[in-house]
Design brief:
2 helices, about 60% helix
Length: about 120
Amino acid sequence: MNRRRTETRTPASTFFALFLAAAIAASGGVLHAFYKNRQVQVSREIDAIERHVEQCRLDIRTTEMRMDQLLNRFVIRKQIEENGSALRPIPVGVVEEVDATAPAASRHSVASAAP
């Protein structure tokens, strides 16, 4: 029951080292969980951004398709006729192409691209 005097006592530094090791192990576990949780959050953010980018690409394609439909000459012609407009098609021989890079003196047209 009583301790013998010749028996060695456990030094306090051993208990301190054991407590320090346990604290380091616990903080390592907490940091591991924190970093793993952050990794999952970043992965979710990346997935959300990729979905948003794909949605924007789809919106761009849809807008381009609608623009193509609106700029279709046959559809425009039909809409003009349906609206009862006085606009009529121009014969191909009347159309004159103007080169914007050519000097103004060489042009024989009435309209000019330069002010």
